[in-house]
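Deliverable D2.4 — example input (structure tokens):
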């Protein structure tokens, strides 16, 4: 029997609580024990150890008993890992009551206690490939000693991020369901579990063991979780933080009718007590359970070597967001039961299984502020300013909040501790507040109010059209934020492709406020004074005064002299470390230098980036017409419409002169885009912008190469995968200049699909529809000679 647990038949309640006070009491015992045992642990280490014991126990209560964690799992894992490390190095400090010896939490009094027929274990956590290797080698060596000559086979499974459950079947009838609790005693959640469709009340077939304890994981499938959360948001309720807490919270409802409304599923991953059932391996057990109608995971595999285990880990790390459920790692088990028995258990975990954990995707941090971003078309979106946090391998400081309804739905207050998530390449997201940490900090928190005026230019914001929750700043011409975004867009790869005009350079040219510190306290006064920047004090601190560009119209008239004194705010670093202070520094010109007397030496030459910028601006003037059209930021006019317009008209003048009906008739344009183009050219400053660019030498006509044969007239061609000779844009251009249409998706109307390396679903679709597929060589032939030789037999 495990530590301090009441014997069979005794209500579990008498041995509660395990909460922080209980841990302190246990700590007392630990310290007394230390007087009698020699220990080389320093006082600092003992203090750290005691603090950790208390902290970890507090988190165990919050997570297991209240379903309301205060920190992310990864942060918790770090704490318990450190605790285990100290105990491993100083076993004299540890006691049987240490939180490292617990399996989960004490069962809640809200449910009747249930004694498991066999103990439910936790799993040993492994956080790196080398930890996995050590664990693997140890298991193999131990087996070799006990069962010489037997090579283990391994069952690799996904570690489902859900709630462990034990189901008891008697003669094939579900009689009880219980949470894991502390491993020995769980909570009776039978009524709630009976509402889950995947869990059979009667096992299929006739011959079942008299008593069978099935273990598994209850989870909320990812898709169902998203839909469920959306319905909560739509009805004005706060969404659930993550599928794991959602599953745990759903199972521990007092009212089974509530559980029944939650989309829950389950996969089995083991058995406890079983009378009359004698499978010889884990995978055989799964086959038997599946035959009886119990849900088993489709992702399980049998492997034979360390390399294969590693391969499985890598595969699912890549796929981790395309699965039925959330995972936090992989579980590796010795398959054979006899071998499992030989390896045995510790008091907490089996020695024949371990859990490899992937890099964390959720962490807690502080929500410092909510500010608004003004986009290229004036859309105002709130975003979270966060205390820097490392998640999924990158540092996160900002996260979009989409619109004011989302902020409300998430229920976050400025100043809250929040859980954030960054999954793979997906942009970081604020999941919600950590409510318990609000206690005692109420006066540091404030509600977010969406502004009535544009945060960048002060213009009163206009609501979106019907059904659109977004607000926009209508001051397109002189709102500095919109201007910055448009200038950055001009440089982007899909527009004029000016590499040196990236985000920072675009902002530096248009927004003297760039990355201004939040408040005056964060300004490095000394650096500010010696920088030579001309600054004025605004409401929130100093700001440099005049932008170099007040409109993108002047972009091609810029001279190196114009950008000489452009300062941007930068975090001051000393010895490579950030100081938390900000100061203005020159952006386009070589860094200012100070002489021995502290006098500023004026910078003398442009940076390499600046030289590149001016070279690229010259080259950009020669870009084809469609790229110039994209660069103008006309609503709805992206690369596809721009290409269609430029191949139909060949010059800016003709596009400007075309009427709406004519524009709408062009393949790839249509009425919405046509209206948007007309509207854009009806604005004076837009026309002046085009004129000024033309005067500066930007090409406003496509050179018609009379020698290019119109070999693809009327044909639709899709290019997929990567070609060797052509970039994506070049292949499109080659098709369009020969009169063809370069489409993005394959349909019955597609005449040819050109497949390069790593072509994926489009190639499959082409094969399915019987569209001719060409390789690169054949594509070149098609460009030169036309489609004659590939005419379909049925044409
Ligand atoms: N955020 C917090 O404050 C906090 C506090 C306590 C615990 N936790 C989290 O709870 C977990 C610790 O609890 P734990 O003891 O369940 O350890 P664990 O997560 O390391 O693994 C053990 C559990 O994994 C589950 N599991 C999922 N898929 C499985 C499969 N295919 N085969 C076998 N088992 C599978 C089982 O229920 C098993 O009990 C950790 O993820 C930890 O980060 C978080």
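Example output (designed residues):
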């Amino acid at each position: 029997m495990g530590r301090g647990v009441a014997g069979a038949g005794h209500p579990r309640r008498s041995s509660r609580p395990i909460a922080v006070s209980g841990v302190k009491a246990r700590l007392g015992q630990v310290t007394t024990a230390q007087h009698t045992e020699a220990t080389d642990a320093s006082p600092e280490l003992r203090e750290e150890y005691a603090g950790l014991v208390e902290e970890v126990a507090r988190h165990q209560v919050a997570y297991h008993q209240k379903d309301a964690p205060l920190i992310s799992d990864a942060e918790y894992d770090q704490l318990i890992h450190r605790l285990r490390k100290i105990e491993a190095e100083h076993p004299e400090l540890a006691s049987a009551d240490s939180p490292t010896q617990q399996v989960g939490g004490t069962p809640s009094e809200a449910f009747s206690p249930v004694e498991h027929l066999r103990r439910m274990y936790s799993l040993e956590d492994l956080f790196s490939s080398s930890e996995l290797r050590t664990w693997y080698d140890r298991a193999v060596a131990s087996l070799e000693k006990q069962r010489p000559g037997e090579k283990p086979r391994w069952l690799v499974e996904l570690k489902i991020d859900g709630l462990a459950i034990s189901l008891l079947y008697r003669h094939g009838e579900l009689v009880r369901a219980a949470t894991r609790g502390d491993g020995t005693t769980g909570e009776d959640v039978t009524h709630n579990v009976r509402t889950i469709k995947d869990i059979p009340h009667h096992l299929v077939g006739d011959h079942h063991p008299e008593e069978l304890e099935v273990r598994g994981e209850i989870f909320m499938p990812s898709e169902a979780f998203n839909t469920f959360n959306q319905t909560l948001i739509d009805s004005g309720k706060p969404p659930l933080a993550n599928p794991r807490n959602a599953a745990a919270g759903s199972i521990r409802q007092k009212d089974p009718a509530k559980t029944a409304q939650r989309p829950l599923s389950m996969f089995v991953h083991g058995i406890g007590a079983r009378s009359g059932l004698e499978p010889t391996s884990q995978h055989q057990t799964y086959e038997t359970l599946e035959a009886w109608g119990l849900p088993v995971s489709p992702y399980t595999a049998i492997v034979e070597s360390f390399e294969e285990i590693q391969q499985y880990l890598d595969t699912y790390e890549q796929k981790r967001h395309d699965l039925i459920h959330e995972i936090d790692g992989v579980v590796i088990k010795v398959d054979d039961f006899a071998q499992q028995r030989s390896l045995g258990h510790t008091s907490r975990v089996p020695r024949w299984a371990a859990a490899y954990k992937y890099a964390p995707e959720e962490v807690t941090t502080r929500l410092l502020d909510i500010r608004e971003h003004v986009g290229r078309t004036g859309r105002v979106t709130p975003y979270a300013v966060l205390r820097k946090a490392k998640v999924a391998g990158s540092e996160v400081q900002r996260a979009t909040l989409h619109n004011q309804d989302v902020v409300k739905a998430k229920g976050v207050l400025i100043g809250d501790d929040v859980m954030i998530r960054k999954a793979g390449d997906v942009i970081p997201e604020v999941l919600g507040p950590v409510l318990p940490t609000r206690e005692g900090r109420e006066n540091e928190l404030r509600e977010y109010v969406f502004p009535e005026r544009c945060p960048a230019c002060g213009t009163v914001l206009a609501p979106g059209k019907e059904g659109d929750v977004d607000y926009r700043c209508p001051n397109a011409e002189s709102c500095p934020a919109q201007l910055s975004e448009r200038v950055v867009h001009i440089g982007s790869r899909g527009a004029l492709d000016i590499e040196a005009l990236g985000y920072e350079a675009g902002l530096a040219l248009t927004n003297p406020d760039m990355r201004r510190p939040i408040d005056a306290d964060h300004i490095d006064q000394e650096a500010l004074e010696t920088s030579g920047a001309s600054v004025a004090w605004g409401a929130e601190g100093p700001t440099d005064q005049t932008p170099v560009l007040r409109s993108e119209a002047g972009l091609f008239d810029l001279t190196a002299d114009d950008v000489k004194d452009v300062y941007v705010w930068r975090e001051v670093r000393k010895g490579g470390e950030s100081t938390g202070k900000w100061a203005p520094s020159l952006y386009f010109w070589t860094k200012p230098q100070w002489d021995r007397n502290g006098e500023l030496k004026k910078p003398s030459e442009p940076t390499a980036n600046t030289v590149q910028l001016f070279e690229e601006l010259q080259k950009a003037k020669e870009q084809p017409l469609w790229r110039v059209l994209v660069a103008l930021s006309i609503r709805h006019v992206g690369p596809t419409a721009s290409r269609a317009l430029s191949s139909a008209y060949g010059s800016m003048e003709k596009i400007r002169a075309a009427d709406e009906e004519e524009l709408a008739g062009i393949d790839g344009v249509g009425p919405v885009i046509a209206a948007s183009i007309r509207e854009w050219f009806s604005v004076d400053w837009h026309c002046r912008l085009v004129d000024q660019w033309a005067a500066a030498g930007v090409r406003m006509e496509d050179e018609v190469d009379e020698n290019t044969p119109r070999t693809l007239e009327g044909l639709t061609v899709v290019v997929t995968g990567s070609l060797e000779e052509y970039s994506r844009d070049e292949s499109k251009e080659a098709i369009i200049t020969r009169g063809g249409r370069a489409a993005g998706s394959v349909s019955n109307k597609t005449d040819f699909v050109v497949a390069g390396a790593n072509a994926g679903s489009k190639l499959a679709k082409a094969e399915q529809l019987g569209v001719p597929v060409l390789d690169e060589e054949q594509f070149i032939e098609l460009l030169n000679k036309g489609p004659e030789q590939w005419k379909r037999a049925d044409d």
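The CA atoms of residues 60 and 238 lie 24 Å apart.
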